[in-house]
Amino acid sequence: MTKKLLFLSLIIPFQVIFAQKNTLSDFPEGYEPKEIGKRLAYHFVDDKHELYAGRYIHYAEVSTWTGSLDYAIQTKDQKLIKLLQSRFEPFFTREKPLLPPMNHVDYNMFGGLALKLYQITNDKRYLDMGMAYADSQWEVPDNAKPEEKAWAEKGYSWQTRLWIDDMYMITSVQAEAYKVTGDPKYIDRAAKEMVLYLDEIQRPNGLFYHAPDVPYYWARGNGWMAVGMADLLTYLPEDHKDRARIMKGYLTMMESLKKYQAPGGIWNQLIDDPECWAETSGSAMFTYAFIVGIKQGWLDAKEYTPAARKAWKALVPYIDERNNVTEVCIGTGKKNDKQHYYDRPRVAGDFHGQAPFLWCIVALMEK
Which residues constitute the signal peptide according to the record (predicted)? Predict the structure, then answer.
C-alpha cells in the first residue's frame, strides 16, 4: 500500500465518524429521540390536569398534549393515541366545565388540540369544538373593549395584545383550522398577525423584549416566537404574500440565537446574559426551531446542524428519573427588573418544559 493510500485509509474513518456526529440522527444510547419521547408521552397520559386560574385547562397542558399526539402519530403508536383520546373524552361530559372560554388568546388555543384529534379520528365532535375556538378569535364579542374592536377593524384578531407568546397561541389554532378546512382565510389570518408582531416588536438583532417597556430577552418568551414562526412557515404556501417577511424575521432570529448559544449547548434564562442560569423550556423551543429549519432547508445544514445536535445532547440530561424536565422557569409576567428574571423559581415537570421537548423529539424523527 502506498503512503497516500495508507493515509486515506486512516483519515476516511475519522471523516465518517465526524459526519455522523454532525447529523440529527445516530444519537448515542440514552439520547435516542424515540425512546425519550415514549417516556415523556406516556408520563403525560398519567399526569394530572394543569388548570389556568384554577378553573380551565392551561395552554401549557394543551401544548404537551398536542406534542404527545404528534409523537404517537409519528411512531404509529395506536395504544398511545387511544390513551390520549380517552384523556380528552370527559371534556364532552363531566369535565366540560374545564373547557376554556373563548375570550382570551391563551384560552382559544385549546381549539388546536381538538382539531388535531379530529384529523386522527374524523369524529365531528372534535371538528365542531375546535372550529368554534378558531373562529371566535376573529368574532368580536359585544362586550369587547374599544382597543379590541380597533384591532378587529384593521383585520386582526380582537385578542391581539402584542405579547410575544401570542404568536404561538394565535397561529397554532388558525393553522390547524387551515389544515382541516383548506380555507386560506385561516392561514392568511395567522400570517397577517405574525407580520404585525414582527413589525412591531422584533428587535434589530432578531430577538424580542419581554415587553416594549421591559428590555430583557427572556428565553421562553422568545421561544414562543421561534416555534410560532417555524411552524407557520411549514404550513404557509410558498407563494404566500407574507412568506418572505416571516422568513426574514425567522432567519434573523436564528442567527442571533446561534450567537448566544452557551458553550454547553443550551441557552440562559436571559438569552444574552452569560451569567444567568440555564433554562430548559426556552432552550428546547430554540432547538426545535433549529431542527425544523435545517430539515426544511431554510438554515444552512453545515452551520446549524452541529448547534442543534449539541443542544439536544445538552437538554436530555435535564430529564429526571420520573421523566420530568427540570430547570423550567415557572410562568412569568413582565417586570422591568433584571433580578426578577434571575429570581424566578425553577420547577420539574412543568408542561411548559415537557411540551417543547416532545416537539424536538418529533422534529428529530421526521424525515
Answer: 1-19
Look at domain 30-139+153-365 and name its CATH class.
mainly alpha
Residue 83 vs residues 44, 65, 88, 300: alpha-carbon distances, Å: 10, 11, 9, 39
Residues 6+ apart with CB under 8 A from 66: 112, 113, 116, 172, 355
User: For residue 172, what is its C-alpha cell?
Assistant: 397554532
Q: Percentage of the chain surpassing pLDDT 90?
A: 92
Helix 351-365 with 280-296: angle, nearest 10 deg: 20
Query: For 18-65, how does the pLDDT look when each residue is reduced to its tens digit (9 = 90+)?
Result: 344 459 999 999 999 999 999 999 999 999 999 988 899 999 999 999
CB 105 within 8 A of CB 159: yes
